[in-house]
Amino acid sequence: MAHLRAPATNCSSIANPLTPYELFVGLRYTRARRGAGRNGFVSFIAFTSMAGIALGVAALIVVLSVMNGFQDELRNRILSVASHIEVRALNGEMSDWKKVAEAARAHPRVKAAAPYVLGQAMLSAGDVNRGALVCGIDPALEDTVADIGAHMRMGSLAALKPGEFGIVLGSELARALGVRIGDSVVVIVPQGTVTPAGTLPRIKSFRVVGIFEIGMYEFDNGLSLIDLSDAQKLYRLGESVSGVRLKLDDMFAAPAVARDLLATLPADAEVRDWTQSHANFFRAVAIEKRVMFIILTLIVAVAAFNIVSAQVMVVTDKQADIAILRTLGAAPSSILTIFIIQGALVGIIGTLIGVVGGVALALNIDTVVPAIERAFGIQFLDKSVYYISELPSDLQRGDITMIALIALALALIATLYPSWRAAKVNPAEALRYE
To answer: Which of 47, 97, 177, 284 is the most exposed place for a label (fewest CB within 10 A)?
Structure first.
C-alpha cells in the first residue's frame, strides 16, 4: 500500500516557486490598497518618507555638482591669468632671470617660461582714481604660460610694444575709470623720486590698447598689463624682473615639480605653485563642499528615519498576519526579511527618483537658473561679491554613486528596528483577541 503524504503547510506554497515567499509577501504589503484610517495614514507617511529621500538625494547631487563646477571654473579662471609655477626673487629683483628660465625649462614637465614684473600703482583718468596691480609682460611669451589673450574683449596683447607705453585694463577697471581704447590713463607708482622739494611719486601716462574680461571680479577690477620693458623703466629695475612664470604639461603635477626645481634653482629664488598662491580659495571651496554634504545628508537621514514610524505602525497593524505566517511555519528571520523588504523598497524608489531628478537638474543647471532669474527678476550670483557670476555644474559619477549608497544604507538601517519587532511577535498573544 502506497504511503500518503500530507499537503505542505509551510509558507513556500503561497508564492511562486521561483520567488522567495519573503519577497512575495513584502512586495504584496507594499502594493496593498490604500484606504481610510490607519492604512491610509501609514501610506501617507511612507509616501512622505519617499519624497523626502528623493528631494534630499536630488539636492545633494545638484549641490555637489555645482561645487565641483565652481572649483573647476575658479581654477581655470585663476590659471588663465596666473601660472602653474612662479619663481620669484626673495629681494623682489631677479637679475639672472634668463638663467633661471633656462634651468626651469630643463625639467621635462616644464613646457614654457616667461618673465614678468609686478608692482602696485594708482591709475587715474579724469577725476577718477583706482588702485591696481600693474603686471609687465612679454606679449610674445605670455600666451605660452597663461590664457589671458583668449579673454580679450577689445584690442590684443600684441598691441603692447616696447617704448610705446600701452596698457591693457580689466573690464571692470576700465569701466570704473571711464576709459576706452585709445584713451589715456595716468599711472602713479609709490616708488618716489627724490627731489630738493621732497620725495615725489613717479608718474607716467599710458594709452589704453586693450581690455580683457576674465570673469573674476578680482582680476577684472584690479589688474592691468603693460609691456615688460616699460614696466622695468617705470619701476627702475634695469634688466631685472620680479620673477619667471612657468607652464607645465599637467597642472596637478605643480607641487611635485616645484619641489624638484628648488634643488636646481639658485638659493635666493622662491618657488610657489598655483596651489600655494591661491590656497585660500580652494581650501574654502573644499570646506564648503564638505559642510554642504553633511547638512544635506542630514535631510536624507531625517526622511529615511521617517520610515521607522511608518514601519512600526505597519507591524502593529499586521500582527495578526504575522502570527498566521508564524503558525504556517515562517521563521522569525523570514518575518524580519519581509518587513526589511517593504521598508527598503521605499528607500530604493525614493533614491532612484532623487538620482534621476538630481542628474537631470545638474545637467541643465545652466538653463534652469537663468530662467528662474528672468522669471523673478533676481540674480543669484553678484559678480562684485562672488568670484564668478554664473552657476557652473560638473556632474561626477563618483558623487552620484556615493550619494545613492548613503541614501540606501540609511533607509536600510531605518527598517531594522521595526523588522526586528515584527520578528519578535508572539503568535499566541497576537491571535488572542482575533
So the answer is: 284
Q: Which strand (E) or helix (H) includes residue 155?
A: strand 152-155
Separation in Å, CA 69 to CA 10, 56, 72, 218 = 57, 20, 5, 19
* Biggest CA-to-CA distance, the chain: 136
Answer yes or no: is pLDDT of 313 > 50: yes
Kindly compute the dihedral angle of the four CA atoms of residues 27, 28, 31, 33, in this order, to the nearest 10 degrees: -160
Find the range with the poorest average confidence among 43-47, 68-72, 133-137: 43-47
**Identity of residue 339:** F
> Mean pLDDT score of the chain, rounded to an integer?
80
CB-CB contact of 24 with 16 (8 Å) = yes
Whole-Å CA distances, 292 to 44, 66, 88, 298: 29, 11, 37, 10
Report how far residue 84's alpha carbon sits from residue 275's, in angstroms, rounded to the nearest whole number: 8
Residue 87 in contact with residue 104, Cβ under 8 Å? yes
Q: How far apart are the first and last CA of the chain?
A: 42
Q: How far is CA 430 from CA 29, 84, 324, 417, in A?
A: 18, 72, 9, 19
| DSSP track, 166-216 | EEEEEHHHHHHHT--TT-EEEEEEEEEEEETTEEEEEEEEEEEEEEE--S-
* Contacts of 178 by beta carbon, 8 Å cutoff, 6+ apart: 125, 126, 128
The grid coordinates of residue 116 equal 614678468
User: What is each CA distance from 127 to 29, 177, 201, in whole angstroms?
Assistant: 78, 9, 18
Query: Which residues neighbour 270 within 8 Å (Cβ) at sequence distance 6 or greater?
Result: 87, 88, 89, 90
Query: Each residue of 256-268: pLDDT tens digit?
Result: 888 888 888 877 7
The torsion of the CA quartet 327, 329, 332, 336, rounded to 10 degrees, works out to: -100
